[in-house]
Amino acid sequence: MSVLAGKVALVTGASRGIGRGIALQLGSAGAKVYITGRKPEASDAAIEAGLPSLDKTAKDIESRGGKAVIVYTDHSNSSEIKALFNQIADENDGTLDILVNNAYAGADFLMKNSDKRFFELEPEVWDVCNNVGLRNHYFCSVYATRLMVARNPPSGIIVNISSAGGLKFFLNVAYGVGKAALDRMSVDMAVELQKLGITSIALWPGAVKTELSTMRMAAGAMKQSQHDEVTPEQLKAILAGGESTEFAGKAIVALAADPKVHKLNGRIFMTGDVADRYGFVDVDGKRILSARSLKFLLQNGLVPIPGAKFFSYFVPAFVKIPGWFLSAFVSAL
Ligand SMILES: *[C@@H]1O[C@H](CO)[C@@H](O)[C@H](O)[C@H]1NC(C)=O
Ligand SMILES: *[C@@H]1O[C@H](CO)[C@@H](O)[C@H](O)[C@H]1NC(C)=O
């Protein structure tokens, strides 16, 4: 299945986690995938041991018959970002079909400091969260769009990996503001891209299982008991029912292969919603419920009514809550 044969894609931050999963899926679908990450890289021995690294992502793409190009990039450095796009343009006659803005540098810092309030941390936490997670995405989107607009006719798709952290307090003020801004950026860019045939979409992965970092972040969030009302048991259940790191990649493959994708310009999707739309399941064959589905919320005890979990057995997964309602609901938690 090479639905993306001949396409050129860039996934920023592809050493591990969701970025790695997306790169694997785009590569498996036939795209030539540029993958970025920072040096220093893991040693050969660590790669042999299966530890995540950019090299490992590239090797895994190639073992699936795909093509990967590693470009070591510090996404907090403007000149390195610019050089990355120059390289892609030079090597592909100016073509870039798919940009996935995924790089995020603040996760470790956030986990270590999840028990501190914003005024207890130095204000540079803003830069830790948002230099790569927001500023870099803006830079990448500018350079990618320039390549996409120059084509005849203009075409391309830009996906920002965001999260429900844009909806409600999670971990840290600077983190949440950055995520909310990222969603806004996508939507505003979409306004300017509307007539150009270039598509900008924000994608929210749900709870991602097997990801150590997600588990640790979630554990960190638990420490914020003054803010979070999700119990550790509920959280465990949510993660156990979660999606693989490649599920977001399947969503992007489906979107990028859809000739009518531009109709979705400016939308914010959860991965489970994209799966419902295009009819795919996770890599292990499991159906993933959208976090927006009533069933998901009931199952995970996120609806504050007695017996909510019991009711969830009777609610079909296709009963969806409108995004605006979820937003209001989550804010009210
Ligand atoms: C940014 O990257 C360039 C090229 O790799 C390097 O020469 C420069 O020192 C970097 N700047 C910073 C602030 O790290
Ligand atoms: C993605 O991020 C870029 C840069 O931050 C922004 O310009 C663009 O509008 C965003 N697009 C989407 C769909 O989120």
TrEMBL record:
- According to the record, the segments passing through the membrane are none
Q: Which InterPro entries match?
A: NAD(P)-bd_dom_sf, Sc_DH/Rdtase_CS, SDR_fam
Per its UniProt record, what SUPFAM superfamilies does this chain match?
Answer: NAD(P)-binding Rossmann-fold domains
Q: Name one GO molecular function term.
A: oxidoreductase activity
Alphabetic keyword roster = Oxidoreductase
Q: Name one Pfam family in it.
A: adh_short
User: What domain of life?
Assistant: Eukaryota
Family designation? Belongs to the short-chain dehydrogenases/reductases (SDR) family.
| Name the record gives this protein | Dehydrogenase/reductase SDR family member 1
